[in-house]
Write a sequence for this structure.
């Protein structure tokens, strides 16, 4: 069997903890691993690690590779140049498996942001689905609804039995609350988990029938020569979900009820639901001081958050944003995220503190023509050999010892010492020592963005 992990989402409903450049699948919400890492480890219980492929966006590629490298050697990660929803990702991932591995064995497709703790029951359900997939069906996994949820899609089934699964009647988009309550009363409606299973030949044949506008473009991608997904060709793909492209139109769809626990952590309410609560029904994470609140979720990332008499409330604090809403309104957080994006407010995009494979940086101040950061480089790590076309940089060492490579020359800087990096100068900041390195970086220029980095060498494979 092969595993295909979809790791390209933005997690907009978990703002402000989740950001466009650091979405929820990269977050460590409840475990020692991130949701992405937990997903990989779950598949690894049944699928060989070398047969697990992750699909992500180019802006998440380095973080996805870094996180997976911590739990497996040489993780296989494909990068989409732009977001095109789930259909192009799944179809191209399937084509990759067929061309590179040369087999027609079953593929299990899973999102990277689900929380499933009962791995044994999950695997038993997967085994059941595998039998049906080998009979030529595309299998979807349904969750028996626990309450009237408006944030999930639904799948209705017929009475036809298929190897302990069910024939699918129809897929339904996220309903309003009245419709969701009606679905809850019926015994043949399931939440759509977004988990699928199929043989590559079956899926590609159904894509040919149901979505020829996708199928006819597949010949432009040749994975026998390269893992790269060219932007010029991928941009021609329609942006559509696998549900709309195939699942809603095919007559080869079967549903298996997922017997394990499941939560897609798609909102703050879902995180509250799975979190351990105190005697008043509260969840308190971080530096929180409370008096008399009930049934509330309070999260502090950096500051003391004091609350008094809250009820059924979500309160989330990060370095640069605070979210407060009622528990039953958490699906509307996406509207805030979308508004920030339209206003070109970077609060939707990135945190003040951004983690990298070599350490992290925190934005301290920014204005027209300047940006100031505190950069921490962990022992034994180094930034890529790089240059910038639009900015100069000034580095001052605060703590530890820095090795600076500047235009081919090595400089060793102690606390209090500094160096200037001119526009287009080739340079690297390195910490080959045992202590943490901290520096202040002052950028000056007309375009101060992370994309203004030209990499020449990189120990994390980002060239």
């Amino acid at each position: 069997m092969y595993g295909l992990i979809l790791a390209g989402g933005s997690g907009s409903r978990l703002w402000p903890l989740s950001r466009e450049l650091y979405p929820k699948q990269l977050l460590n919400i409840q475990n020692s691993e991130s949701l992405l890492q937990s997903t990989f480890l779950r598949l690894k219980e049944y699928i060989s690690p070398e047969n697990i492929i992750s699909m992500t966006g180019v802006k998440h590629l380095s973080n996805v590779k870094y996180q997976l490298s911590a739990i497996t050697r040489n993780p296989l990660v494909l990068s989409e140049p732009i977001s095109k929803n789930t259909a192009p990702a799944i179809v191209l991932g399937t084509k990759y498996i067929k061309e590179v591995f040369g087999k027609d064995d079953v593929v299990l497709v899973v999102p990277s942001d689900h929380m499933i703790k009962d791995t044994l029951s999950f695997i038993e359900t997967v085994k059941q689905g595998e039998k049906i997939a080998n009979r030529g069906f595309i299998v979807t996994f349904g969750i028996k609804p626990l309450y009237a949820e408006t944030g999930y899609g639904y799948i209705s089934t017929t009475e036809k039995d298929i190897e302990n699964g069910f024939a699918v009647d129809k897929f339904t988009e996220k309903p309003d609350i009245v419709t969701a309550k009606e679905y809850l009363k019926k015994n043949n409606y399931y939440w759509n988990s977004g988990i699928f299973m199929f043989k590559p030949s079956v899926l590609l044949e159904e894509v040919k029938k149901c979505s020829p506008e996708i199928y006819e473009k597949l010949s432009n991608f040749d994975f026998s020569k390269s893992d790269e997904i060219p932007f010029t060709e991928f941009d021609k793909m329609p942006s559509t979900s696998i549900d709309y492209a195939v699942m809603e139109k095919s007559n080869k769809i079967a549903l298996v009820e997922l017997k394990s626990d499941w939560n897609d952590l798609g909102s703050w309410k879902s995180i509250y639901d799975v979190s351990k609560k105190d005697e008043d029904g509260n969840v308190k994470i971080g530096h929180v001081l409370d008096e008399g609140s009930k049934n509330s979720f309070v999260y502090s990332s950096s500051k003391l958050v004091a609350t008094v008499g809250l009820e059924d409330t979500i309160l989330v604090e990060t370095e640069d944003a605070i979210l407060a809403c009622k528990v039953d309104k958490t699906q509307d957080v996406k509207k805030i995220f979308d508004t920030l994006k339209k206003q070109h407010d970077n609060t939707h995009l990135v945190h003040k503190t951004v983690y990298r494979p070599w350490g992290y940086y925190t934005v301290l101040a920014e204005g027209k023509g300047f940006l100031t950061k505190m950069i921490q480089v962990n022992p034994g790590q180094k930034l890529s050999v790089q240059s910038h076309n639009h900015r100069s940089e000034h580095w001052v060492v605060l703590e530890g010892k820095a090795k600076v490579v500047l235009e081919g020359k090595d400089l060793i800087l102690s606390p209090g010492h500094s160096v200037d990096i001119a526009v287009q100068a080739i340079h690297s900041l390195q910490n080959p020592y045992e202590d943490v390195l901290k520096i202040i970086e002052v950028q000056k220029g007309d375009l101060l963005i992370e994309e203004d980095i030209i990499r020449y060498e990189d120990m994390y494979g980002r060239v």
User: Anything to note?
Assistant: Residues 46 and 123 are 7 Å apart (CA to CA). The longest strand covers residues 189-198. The longest helix spans residues 86-101.
